[in-house]
Amino acid sequence: MIEQLITSFIASAAFGMIFNAPRKSLMKCGFVGMLGWIIYYMMVENQLDTIFSTVVASFVIAVTGQIFSKIYKTPVIIFSVAGVIPLVPGGMAYDAMRNFVQNDYNIAISLAAKAFMVSGSIAIGLVFSEVINQAIRQTQLNRLNKGQGR
Amino acid sequence: MDKQLTFTYEIMDVCLLAGKIMLQSGAETYRVEDTMTRMAAAFGFSHSHSYVTPTGIIFSVEGKEPTKTKLIRIAERTTDLEKVALVNGISRKISSGEFTADEAYQELKIVERASHTYPLWVQSVAAAVSSGCFLIMFMGKWPDFLPAVIAGGAGFISLIYFHRLVPIKFFSEFLASFIIGLLAFLFVKTGAGMEVDKIIIGSVMPLVPGLLITNAVRDLMAGHLVSGLSKGAEAFLTAFAIGSGIALVFSIFAGIGG
């Protein structure tokens, strides 16, 4: 559990470096990644569905990213990208590919479909939080200056 | 009238430059569109249209004269989130009226020219360390940590090196994953590593187009069908290149009888 926390923090921050995130936000990238991964990890450990866990985790990542982006005035993408990386079904896609090579097409296709579903659910989590954010901002804007909405 | 015309063109140049930098640095297409329209609006052009795909931007501004349209082509895309953040900051300043068009243009030029990337060795170390961490996160054993670090680092370095040698993205991805697979197998054969699968999964993560896949699905959901599909195609090609690189290693070792 603690090793999961530490490794996911380091992995996300390191990905922030590869993606060249601003130096100041590296720690926050690591934090967002750690948060998302731990939620995912705990849910999967407790026998919850992978897809559902991914949606919840990526939703939390996006919400945290939006809060951070408000506070630090940086685009959300910086936090969400680094945070989402641990959830990406890289291992699954690799397994699918390897089964294709070994002519196990049935397993391969089911794994590939699952990898696609997982990446779709990451996107759903991100989009869902964005919709909520937009809705909140819209109502705030309407209240502040009528007719000036986005 | 003539003055108005040059002003319109100036604004278009500013918006397009901002859009170009953002798109080249890996921003989502909807963000690019949004930023460009907002910038134009801040300069007083409330009717502007932008059409952004991963490979080009079309931007038109409706003024008092006939509508002006410009197109720019984007050939190379990398991920440089710092530039996205910087352009975002400039666009904020434009919206709040701190920058004139000319100042904004100069600032954007500076951002475009500047290189904020971390030194190569820092990036490679980051990739290597993250490979090891991913191994642990995917339930790998600690003895495999070091092999994954080495394989991941070597894979990342070779990706960049081959990309400089032959500027075809998929070729360098193929070779990089081939090297990762080779190293992983060698480690396991020599007894330095335990599970080939886990080592490969961990070390391949820095190459995996996770960002692309997620962005593609996101663009599709946002209604940007063209960019969603083309990003999806790019992601698929990358995954395919990685997969076939690893597959080659597998078939070689199966051929030897490993």
TrEMBL record, chain A:
InterPro entries: ThrE_2, ThrE_Dicarb/AminoAcid_Exp. Keywords: Cell inner membrane, Cell membrane, Membrane, Transmembrane, Transmembrane helix. It is a multi-pass membrane protein. It comes from the Bacteria. The keyword Cell inner membrane applies. The chain crosses the membrane at residues 25-44, 50-69, 76-94, 106-128. It is found in: Cell membrane. Pfam families: ThrE_2. Residues 4-132 form the Threonine/Serine exporter ThrE domain. Belongs to the ThrE exporter (TC 2.A.79) family. PANTHER family: SUCCINATE TRANSPORTER SUBUNIT YJJB-RELATED, UPF0442 PROTEIN YJJB-RELATED. This is Threonine/serine exporter family protein.
TrEMBL record, chain B:
Its main location: membrane. It is a multi-pass membrane protein. It is found in: Cell membrane. Residues 13-252 form the Threonine/serine exporter-like N-terminal domain. InterPro entries: ThrE-like_N, ThrE_Dicarb/AminoAcid_Exp. It comes from the Bacteria. Pfam families: ThrE. The chain crosses the membrane at residues 118-139, 145-162, 174-193, 237-256. Keywords: Cell membrane, Membrane, Transmembrane, Transmembrane helix. Belongs to the ThrE exporter (TC 2.A.79) family. This is Threonine/serine exporter family protein. The lineage of its organism: Bacteria, Bacillati, Bacillota, Bacilli, Bacillales.
